[in-house]
Amino acid sequence: MEPLYEEYLANHGTIVKPYYWLSFSLDCSNCPYHIRTGEEARVPYTEFYQIFGFPYGPTYPPTKHLTFYELKTSSGSLVQKGHASSCTGNDTHPESMLFEVNGYFDSAIHNNDCIRHIILYSSNSPCNEANHCCISKMYNFLAKYPDITLSVYFSQLYHTEAEFPASPWNREALRSLASLWPQVTLSPISGGIWYSLLSNFVSGVQEASVFQPILTGRALADRHNAHEINAITGVKPYFTDVLLQAEENPDVKVQAALEGHPLNSVFPRQSFQVTSGQLQPNLTLDPRVPVVFVLVPYRDLPPIHVGPSPHKPRNIIRHLNVPQISFQETGDLRKSPIGMPVERVEITGQFASSKEADEKKKKKKKAKN
């Protein structure tokens, strides 16, 4: 194949021009090397915060797109890590560069048949707007390589709200991409994945920061993303909800912050109540209030689907919780209370249907009389 890109060896990896005709541009600070691999893919902590909105929550509007990636074997061994940044001069998104025909991923898999899984950690969910066609390129790429699985994690949804004219196309494209499950999974970045990104893709991170708690604003944004992507695609995402532990936290300030956060209103079935203590008057929301320590492994990622797709969903049997009874009471379960006549009946589908038929006949006879 004739590649579109040019790759150069750097001190700690490689730097890549995704399109060989790109040149230095005053309109884009990253041009022409929008793809970086190995340790060259690390970005400063301040840039990570501005683009991904960690640890305080998302920043609006997104001024730049950044996607970290990992290429892995079927056993989970890392082949390559890197990142792709958007080009503000040519208005090109990272996914569009990576999944281009004869682009970087196409060439990487063509030259290394051990790659079986691609993991993306994106600041924004992929779109399918006319200038980018990111999801269309991803879809065509996966059709070309049916043995490749793709996991997409995102920090915030991109142009899926009703106020954006392109939102219907983006939502429909996300549904189409999610329909490829289990070859494709779409999930928000959450829980331990944040710390994995800090460890593997961010420079200038203090060791203590890796074990800092998830903050209120970020945790609620992650939950909001999980709710929205589920509503758009109908597929339940992989998601670590650290707020479930915070709901039982007796810390008044934490609970008040959760209750007052604007994103909390999008979850009608979720309630955040103070379990002990009294609310302080005029307590203002602080999105920097820690929610809960999440001491999870860096690589706490969902299992990679390698086998064939299931033909139909599994049947789910729900069991009710019955009251706990003592051993002595079990011997008297068949005995009825004194003075109450009991008729023991075995109910089957045939019995129920015949009983309904008899009742209909009785009603017809009464109507005739």
UniProtKB/TrEMBL annotation:
Q: Name one Pfam family in it.
A: NAD1
Identify the residues that the record assigns to the CMP/dCMP-type deaminase domain, covering every copy.
61-177
Which cofactor is recorded for it? Zn(2+)
Stretch list, region Disordered: 349-369
Quote the Gene3D superfamilies the UniProt record gives.
Cytidine Deaminase, domain 2 (3.40.140.10)
Q: Which InterPro entries match?
A: APOBEC4, CMP_dCMP_dom
Please name the PANTHER family in this protein's record.
C-U-EDITING ENZYME APOBEC-4-RELATED
The identity of this protein, by name, is C->U-editing enzyme APOBEC-4
From which organism does this entry originate?
Answer: Bison bison bison
Q: What is the lineage of its organism?
A: Eukaryota, Metazoa, Chordata, Craniata, Vertebrata
